[in-house]
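Handover notes (outgoing to incoming on-call)

Open items:
1. IclR family transcriptional regulator: sequence verified, structure written out, both below. Nothing else pending on this one.
2. Nothing else urgent.
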Amino acid sequence: MTGDQGTAAVDPKNLVVSVLKACQLMECFTREKPTLTLTDLTAATGMNKTTVHRLASTLIRAGWLTRGDGATYRLTMRPFRVGAVALAELSLRDEAVPFLRGLADRFGDTAYLMIPGQEGAVCVDMVQGNNPVRVNTVGVGTVLPYHTAAGPVVMLAFSEELRDRWLARTLDQYTSNTMVDAQTLTDRLDKVVRDGYAISEEDYLYGVGAVAAPVFDAQSEIAATLSLGGVNDGFRGSRLLEIIEAVTSSARELSTRLGH
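IclR family transcriptional regulator structure tokens:
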């Protein structure tokens, strides 16, 4: 969907015109013109000086603009930090693709890349192997609860903020193997931290097993998980050990590429 199509699809009654104008104002700043005067902004946007002045004052108060030398305005680092989040996800997905393909090709199961979300782990990419029996319940865009499945459990294990928030709620039971007792789950999370990976055995979907490992960013925060999932019977014995080694080593190398 293009930007024009997305704008056309929005009900005008849901638009906040002042926000659109503020966005238009901020887009006036470029690498070639990092500082602009009130007159510059008025000419670039076609808005009157009073409106531009009010918008700029509001953006200064919000921390998005600051005063430059003389009677000029310039962007602060806040837009950069927000943009960096989007760039980081794009970079993460690009860097993760070879590892996803490598895991899927080697074992024939489905490899997943998940990132932390507000209400659970979000699957942002996946590569299916050649195994004729596939797990079709989890796809790109699926949000999985943090206390189930290998990827989400790894995120919960390595994030104190997620632990505090998630363990304070009533946990839903998905299968008979789902851990919903806070202390039992905490013990499992501590083991995941010690081991450096999580194994899922039918705790989210019956018949499905998985292995996941953490991917860390340059700040040593958990940025994502790499996981391999498939029919639970395929995650046993010596094959399980091979999967654990492959998933953890792939996650470590991806972390290194992200600056960890």
